[in-house]
Amino acid sequence: MTLLVLTPMTILRTSFSPAKRLWFIAFCFLSVLPARSAEDGKQLIAEACSNERHQLEHKTLWSSGVQRRTEGHVYIEKEIETVDGPIRHLVSVDGHEPSPSERKQDYDRLRNLMQNPKAGSQLKKDHDADVAKAADLLRVIPEAFLFEDEGSQGGLEKLAFRPNPAYKPKTYEERALHAMSGIIIVDLQEKRLAQLSATLIQPVDYGYGVVGRLKQGGTVNLTRVRVSPGIWKTSSSRIDINGRFILFKTINKQQDEVRSDFKSVAPETRIAQALQQLGGK
Predict the structure, then answer these.
(1) In this predicted structure, what is the pLDDT of residue 9?
(2) pTM assigned to the model
(3) What residues does 243 pair with on adjacent strands?
(4) Closest to 248 (Cα-Cα) out of 137, 129, 119, 121
(5) Which of 10, 182, 270, 275 could form a disulfide with 198 if both were Cys (CB 3.0 to 4.6 A apart)?
(6) Nearest residue to 124 (alpha-carbon basis) of 270, 230, 233
(7) What's the pLDDT tens digit per position in 106-162?
(8) What is residue 213's predicted lDDT score, i.e. its pLDDT?
(9) ∠ at Cα 93 (88, 94), nearest 5°?
(10) What φ, ψ does residue 191 adopt, rounded to 5°?
(11) How would you class 100 by CB atoms within 10 Å of its CB: exposed for 0-12, middle for 13-18, buried for 19 or more?
C-alpha cells in the first residue's frame, strides 16, 4: 500500500481546479506564518498608546449625541467639547421631552457655567486632570501588562492582556489599572486602540481600605471609532466598578453611554460659544 503525502506540489498535479489549488497553497503558506510574538504585541500596544497620547496632546474639538442610561432611565443629550471641557444639554428623557423641573435643572446648570467663573474653572480643572491621568495610564500600559496575540481579522489585531508581575504601580490609578485583565483590539492601519474589555481580577485597597476599595469583578468596556484621519473617539463606554474610590473626576464608577453623530467643532470654542450652539442658553 502506497502512502500519498499531500504537499502543495502534489496538489498542483491533481485534478483540482486552479481556484482550489490557489486557495490550498495560500492556506499552506498562512499556516506556517509565525504568530505575533509577545514582544511584537507589546510594540503594537506601545505604538497605539503613543498615538492616543498624541491625540490628547493635540486635541481637536467635537460634538456628539449621547445616550446615557442610569437608574432605569434613558437620557439623550447633546455634548459639545470646549477648550474648558465638555458641556451637555438635555434633549429627552425616556423618549419624551424633559419635564419642566428637568428642563429648569438643566438650564440652571448651564447658566451657572456661563455666569459663575468658579464653575467654569472647576470644569476645566477636572477635565485637564482627567486628560493628564489618561495620558499617564496610556504611557504605562505597555509595561504594566503581558500581552498574548489572539489573531487578526479585518485589519484588527486582538491581544489578551494580564498584569505583569514585574511591574510596580506608582499611583492609585495605576494600581487599579494593574489589577485588570482582558482584551485589547488594535486597528492595524492607524495603530489605534479600537476596543477594550477588562475585568478587575482582584480587589484593590487604598490605605488598607480606609481611603478606598475597589471590589473584584468590576468591568470596563470601551469601543472607539475613527471619525477622521488620525482622530478616534469613544463611541460607547460601559463601566461597572463597585467601590468607594473615584479614579476620574468626570467618569463615574457606573456608566453606560453610547455616542454618535460626531461632528468637528471650531478650534478654541469656549463655553459661551458652545452654549449658543446648544440653543442660546
Answers:
(1) 46
(2) 0.81
(3) 214
(4) 129
(5) 182
(6) 270
(7) 999 999 998 999 999 999 999 999 899 999 999 999 999 999 999 999 999 999 999
(8) 82
(9) 140
(10) 55, 60
(11) exposed
β-pairing verdict for 192-200 and 254-265: unpaired
What pLDDT digit, counting tens, does each position of 223-250 carry?
999 999 999 999 999 999 887 655 554 5
Cell numbers standing for residue 132: 493628564
- The answer to whether residues 159 and 41 touch, using CB atoms and an 8 Å cutoff, is yes
What residues does 256 pair with on adjacent strands? 238
Which triple of cell numbers denotes residue 109? 446648570
Question: Distance (Å, rounded) from C-alpha 157 to C-alpha 21?
Answer: 28
241 burial (CB, 10 Å; 0-12 / 13-18 / 19+) is buried
- Structure-block grid coordinates of residue 180: 485588570
What DSSP state is assigned to residue 179?
T
Give the residue carrying C-alpha cell 505597555: 142
